[in-house]
Amino acid sequence: MNQKGIWLSSKETMKYLKLSGCELMHRRERGLLKFEKHGRAYFYYFEIKDQ
Q1: Which residues lie across from 46 on neighbouring strands?
Q2: Residue 15 gets which letter from DSSP?
Q3: DSSP 24
């Protein structure tokens, strides 16, 4: 099994997960999402698993 990842912006992540900005922030603060902050922007990491 091969694992790859993709980084999405906050706007892309909200669309992908169908979340509001507030819920995205709460999940980030609870440690449920892997993220990095670049300046004032947050980017979220999602793994893509190939089988």
Answers
A1: 6
A2: H
A3: H
